[in-house]
Amino acid sequence: LKTPLKQAATSQLVLTERQSDCQPLTTPPKPKETPPADPWTPTSNLKMLISAASPEIRSREQRRQLSDSSSEVLQTKHCLREHILGDEYEKSQPSRKEKSLGLLCHKFLARYPDYPSPSQKSYICLDEVTEELHVERRRIYDIVNVLESLHMVSRLARNRYVWHGRHNLPQTLQALKKVGEENKYIQQIQMIKKREYEHEFDPDGERNEEMASSFGSSEQSEMSFVELPGVEFRAASVNGRKYKSLRVMSQKFVMLFLVSTPQIVSLEVAAKILIGEDQLEDLDKSKFKTKIRRLYDIANVLSSLKLIKKVHVTEERGRKPAFKWTGPEVLPNTQDTKLEATSTTCSPPISESISSKEQCSKALFPSKGKQNFTRHSSLIKLVKSIENDRRKIQSAPTSPVKISASTYQSLPVFPNTIAQFPAITKHQLEGQSKTAEEMQMKCALSSPEAVPKPEPSQQPALSQPLGVCPSSHSSVSPVILPHPQSGVSYAIYLHPSQAHTVTTYSPGFMLQPLPCANVTGIKSNNAKVLSKITTEEGDTQRGTEEPTKSLAAEERPETKSETSSQRCLKRSQALPENNLIKRRKSDEESLDTPSTFFPSGYLIPLTHCTHGNKAECSSKEKAGVCSLQHTAYSSPITGVIPMPASELKTVNIPAFHITPLNIMLSPNSIAAAPVLSNSCLNSSSTSSAPNPSSSALNFMLQHIGLIPAGVQVPANPVLQHVPVSSQSENIGHSSGSTNVQEGKPSAPKEPQEPQAVTENFFRTPGGPNTEPSLSANSDGTQRISQGTLYIPQRKLEVSEN
DNA sequence: TCCTCCCGCCAAGCA
DNA sequence: TGCTTGGCGGGAGGA
């Protein structure tokens, strides 16, 4: 059957050749000979497509055709082709990347289903595979060995394997995790890092000896292949080579991820641990290099399995390759008691649902006993500073807000303040319809747990890391700004001195009970911020960025399941206008009703509990807390100011992590900070007050001693025009504090969450005590030069690039 | 220059 | 003995 495409079947190359011989406008003559290839069938079409797609196949075909001497003409044509395309041919040779083990592994995996039917065993014949994939046998062994380590395949006989797919993977990972914990890989990793730091300052120290002794005591040398019951291990070389095999290395490598928190392992550390278990005395360079080579081999396969992802850890000594676990979470307990991983206090379950409390406490109280930060002193300083401000405000004639004494007194203690919100709200909502009031109350009081009760165990986590949230200073109580798109809430600490400038600018603001989830949000934020500062090297990653990232990338609870508070807000917003007017009127008439407060101040991104982790969220959900989320702002002084989500969309504080000792301001963050205020002020353009965000920023910077009292840090008008995208909460893209870079830098990236990982102190690019540079503005004020401000601390960054 | 890792030698071990 | 398996390190491509 002749198809119309037959002529088109002639390769473009041939057409080109022929056309070059003919007049430009003449129709190319039909080739005299039909190519000796297969008749034009779907199969041949497929072959041609494959050939076109694969240079390797193409060149093979070319070689095969070249060797075919049956057709002189064809040979001539090929010679011509070779002649014309000599360089092209060279270029068409597969590049290294096309021959990479990762790609090969992809091809290999594509041959088999992830979850094969148990009834139908698929067998792997190495000969077939090597033939079909056009690779050396040797390469297949590399892949198969790693797959074998995960019990995705098992060896049946010579040249023959069984494909299990991912059925065994959960079990295997559990087993590996358990073994990893038993082998105290966490301690080993920590020890290696400790040695590294010590080595920085004492390069001639007895590093190896110490390492040797430490490893010697860890009883690691006997570790062998971890088997699963029912999955028989029949390696070809069962004895001597078994313990050095790629299988075992692969398993150990995986263990390192499974026991680490966060699950990021640098190649260097992995290699050292693997070497350490073999022969520590051979900790020479060549051995190390070899291990690294093998780890790359393993990592390529694991990457193809989407179990890990390449990242980079940036340290003082430069960027280090590392890998991050992206595989399935490993839950500690399953039916299989034999494989049940022991829950240890030092190693929480490897899952997305690691308790943030745990994370937080780990971050707060690192077991190593190293002093990771000195937050307290500065916290106290800040508290005093804020107290002073409060005093000033209270005594100032232009005290911004009239607050009824009872209300005010109810505010100073932060948790209690929040506890008062429902009551405050109720009071404020008196003017509203009964329905609305009921809704509000329902939102606020949907659960007795909604009223925050400071738990002893959580109290330190709440007050310590937040720092800027002193419990006894209501004037800077946080306004919590949810950011529905980023999934990160922002706590606004309102400078009291600004409140008066905006008390009349409250049109349209409604009162909303403070979602108690926000209290949790603060906690989550604490955990997040804190872990960024306190935890060690790349290993902080998991606990901090994973939940946020995963949620940012995928489902966001608040978008997926609209919270009751959101519904409340929507309902409230839908209230008849007379209610709004009534409310507004009420606001204007009586400033002692704490209803008009301007969301201005410095913003601190908060991680929602729902973002923090699922476990916590689920536990909170039981108490009805998680359902209350981010549609309202609490007024720092008197109550809560809700804001429509549309307003929130303009809020973007991508990299604004503030703690008493840590401020990282990316250009974007400085730029973005005013956006909120502007958006809020749009309707009140008569304001002659300074840009609240700018002022707030100044206030904050002055408070934390970054700038002297007279210095102003204006909101950069240029940067304000920077479009604020919904994804720009990702601080990685342009900030100097970019921490995460994908493995494929050129590829368009999905939004990534910051993965700032901070060690015991921050790294300072410009020296150990680089101060933020101040430059004079035309108006005589000074501004902080754009870029990241580094507090003299050492910082470690993780990048996925 | 360093990172990454392909490539293939060659030895161990098996049928 | 031939074949399979896989440790190992040189060195090339790429960043």
UniProtKB/TrEMBL annotation:
<dbReference type="GO" id="GO:0045935">
    <property type="term" value="P:positive regulation of nucleobase-containing compound metabolic process"/>
</dbReference>
<dbReference type="Pfam" id="PF02319">
    <property type="entry name" value="WHD_E2F_TDP"/>
</dbReference>
<dbReference type="GO" id="GO:0010604">
    <property type="term" value="P:positive regulation of macromolecule metabolic process"/>
</dbReference>
<keyword id="KW-0010">Activator</keyword>
<protein>
    <recommendedName>
        <fullName>Transcription factor E2F8</fullName>
    </recommendedName>
</protein>
<keyword id="KW-0131">Cell cycle</keyword>
<feature type="domain" description="E2F/DP family winged-helix DNA-binding">
    <location>
        <begin position="241"/>
        <end position="327"/>
    </location>
</feature>
<dbReference type="GO" id="GO:0090575">
    <property type="term" value="C:RNA polymerase II transcription regulator complex"/>
</dbReference>
<dbReference type="GO" id="GO:0045892">
    <property type="term" value="P:negative regulation of DNA-templated transcription"/>
</dbReference>
<feature type="compositionally biased region" description="Polar residues">
    <location>
        <begin position="770"/>
        <end position="788"/>
    </location>
</feature>
<feature type="region of interest" description="Disordered">
    <location>
        <begin position="533"/>
        <end position="594"/>
    </location>
</feature>
<feature type="region of interest" description="Disordered">
    <location>
        <begin position="1"/>
        <end position="44"/>
    </location>
</feature>
<dbReference type="InterPro" id="IPR036388">
    <property type="entry name" value="WH-like_DNA-bd_sf"/>
</dbReference>
<keyword id="KW-0238">DNA-binding</keyword>
<dbReference type="GO" id="GO:0000981">
    <property type="term" value="F:DNA-binding transcription factor activity, RNA polymerase II-specific"/>
</dbReference>
<feature type="domain" description="E2F/DP family winged-helix DNA-binding">
    <location>
        <begin position="96"/>
        <end position="165"/>
    </location>
</feature>
<keyword id="KW-0805">Transcription regulation</keyword>
<dbReference type="InterPro" id="IPR015633">
    <property type="entry name" value="E2F"/>
</dbReference>
<dbReference type="InterPro" id="IPR003316">
    <property type="entry name" value="E2F_WHTH_DNA-bd_dom"/>
</dbReference>
<keyword id="KW-0539">Nucleus</keyword>
<dbReference type="GO" id="GO:0000978">
    <property type="term" value="F:RNA polymerase II cis-regulatory region sequence-specific DNA binding"/>
</dbReference>
<keyword id="KW-0678">Repressor</keyword>
<feature type="compositionally biased region" description="Basic and acidic residues">
    <location>
        <begin position="539"/>
        <end position="561"/>
    </location>
</feature>
<feature type="region of interest" description="Disordered">
    <location>
        <begin position="726"/>
        <end position="801"/>
    </location>
</feature>
<feature type="compositionally biased region" description="Polar residues">
    <location>
        <begin position="726"/>
        <end position="741"/>
    </location>
</feature>
<dbReference type="GO" id="GO:0002040">
    <property type="term" value="P:sprouting angiogenesis"/>
</dbReference>
<feature type="region of interest" description="Disordered">
    <location>
        <begin position="448"/>
        <end position="469"/>
    </location>
</feature>
<dbReference type="InterPro" id="IPR036390">
    <property type="entry name" value="WH_DNA-bd_sf"/>
</dbReference>
<keyword id="KW-0804">Transcription</keyword>
<comment type="similarity">
    <text>Belongs to the E2F/DP family.</text>
</comment>
